[in-house]
Amino acid sequence: MIDRRALLAGLAASAALGGAAGLVRLGSAPAYAEALAPPGEAASGRTVNATLVAAERPRALPCFGGVRLPMWTYSPSLPVPVIRLDHGDRLQARLVNRLPRPEEHTSIHWHGIRLPNDQDGVPYLVQPPVLPGESFDYAFTPPDTGTFFFHSHCNTTEQLGRGMVGVLIVDGDTTEPYDADEVVLLRDWRVNLEGGAFRPMVTLRGAGRAGSYGTVRSANGAVNPSIALPASADCRLRVINCDPTRVMDLRIEGAEACIAAVDGVAIPPVPFDGWQTGPAMRFDLVLRSPRSGRSASLVDVGGDERVELARFAGTGPDIRAGAFDPRPLRAARVPEPDLAAAEPLAFTFADDSGLALPEATTPPGFLGALCLSKASFWTINGQMWPEGGHEAPPPPLAELTLGRSYRAALTNRTLYDHPVHLHGHTFKVLGSDKTRLPVHYADTVLLRPEETVEVAFVADNPGDWMLHCHVLEHQETGMMAYLRVA
Ligand SMILES: [Cu+2]
């Protein structure tokens, strides 16, 4: 149970820090300070049931240009299933494995949800792998509202690469309804459309460098779609980067917007001037949509050339005439770390410098059942996720005391980006030695080359929790470990 006074004190401190940096509009503070009640108090008594059948379903997404590809998905819903809960609802989800390849086991990791360890979906570590023909039942009540997603946690490069992703939204964080609420799911696809096939999801060259990029970029399964929004309205956009590989530098052109949540966790609205968004990272924008007949764009300026990913078209009569002053979300209930008493930790993300990076582009051949590649390139604190893989996991990288606050320096000693994800907990992101960021909370933190980001968190969730890079080829070639909280 969170101490409400401690939570509010922490929020006031965050607002003061942000205010000092000139980023937080003070007018937003009172509504933002209306913290969410714990789901126990808000419990709806409702259970939402979902059945997710992992199977091969040949489909032609709009971004495939009419070509059907052997997608692996959780449901016939395209581009992905969206599970929507109210805060306090219990989710009961049955995963059925009907994947066509013998021994292609799977599981579901509910990314960013602070759930009980045995629901976290990491095969071998917290649950048995779910083999073809088998099923597994998940049940939990998400403690936080926000924008989340789910995916498998073994051979994820291929399973997610072929389409096995879903969105999980927990409602109940608005202080006033927005005029629209849209998911914008961003990802690339590694496809050979002429050949009607997926390209190999893993290459040695990619795995040892920035990852193997997709060849077709998409938003909600389409190339640069036009998303209709009510005109001149305050619209919530839930932007999710579920790409296996690509870090996007996302901007809005042609409209005013504020960032209202990062990785599902509300922050006082901050004017949006771009967000470096690594794989698995999300943010919620409130966008004043264009006037009727006009459009705005979501663009990625992170690569060699600017790429327009989606357009937002103002449709119907203009809704709002006044100045853009979006309502904040209600404050989250992530426990506030005690920085004065926090124990220091340091995690260094590096490459195995003894190894020359190969030029070959042949797939290294994944040991599917062990959840790791034969090739290893990456380390955390000098340790590589070893050959025994998930089935015979190494000792934990660190053993943390249940209930204690920790302050961790996450350092990238490589030439490549690493979005670092910790399961079962949410970081408070304190600062970076390279990038200026508002104080915010996140479950996945992007480390640029040679950057150190300081985070803090309360180890309040007992169990074994993965800490890994979310560039999936990096994860599967060594950059993976776990922390034990007991
Ligand atoms: Cu990485």
**What's the total number of strands?**
34
Tell me the CATH superfamily of the largest domain: Cupredoxins -  blue copper proteins
Q: How many structural domains can be distinguished in the coordinates? A: 3
Distance between the termini: 17 Å
Bound ligands, named by name, code or SMILES: copper (II) ion
Characterize the largest beta sheet: strand count, sense, and whether it forms a barrel: 6 strands, mixed
Multimerization state = single chain
Helix content range: under 10%
CATH C-level class of the largest domain is Mainly Beta
Gyration radius over CA: 21 Å
Structural class label: mainly beta
CATH architecture label of the largest domain: Sandwich
Strand percent estimate: 35-45%
Mean pLDDT comes to 88
Q: Please name the CATH topology of the largest domain.
A: Immunoglobulin-like
Q: Helical segment tally? A: 6
Q: What best-fitting shape do the alpha-carbon axes yield?
A: globular
Strands side by side in the biggest sheet? 12-9-14-19-16-17
Structure in words:
The structure is a single chain. With 486 residues, the chain is mainly β. It has three domains: 41-171, Immunoglobulin-like; 176-315, Cupredoxins -  blue copper proteins (Immunoglobulin-like, Sandwich), CATH 2.60.40.420; 343-485, Immunoglobulin-like (Sandwich). The protein has six helices and 34 strands. It has helices at 4-20, 29-32, 39-42, 156-161, 204-207, 472-475, and strands at 47-59, 69-73, 82-86, 90-98, 109-111, 135-140, 146-151, 165-171, 180-189, 191-192, 197-198, 216-219, 226-230, 234-241, 248-253, 257-262, 265-271, 275-277, 282-288, 295-300, 307-315, 343-351, 366-367, 372-373, 378-380, 398-400, 405-412, 418-422, 427-432, 440-442, 444-447, 452-458, 463-469, 480-485. The strands form eight sheets. The protein has a six-stranded mixed sheet with strand order 12-9-14-19-16-17, with no helix packed on it. A six-stranded mixed sheet has the order 25-22-27-32-29-30, with no helix packed on it. Strands 13-21-20-15-18 form a five-stranded mixed sheet, with no helix packed on it. Strand 16 and strand 17 form a beta hairpin. The longest helix is centred in the N-terminal third of the chain and has 17 residues, at 4-20. It starts with a helix and ends with a strand. The structure holds copper (II) ion. Residues 418, 469, 471, 474, 479 line the site of copper (II) ion (CU).
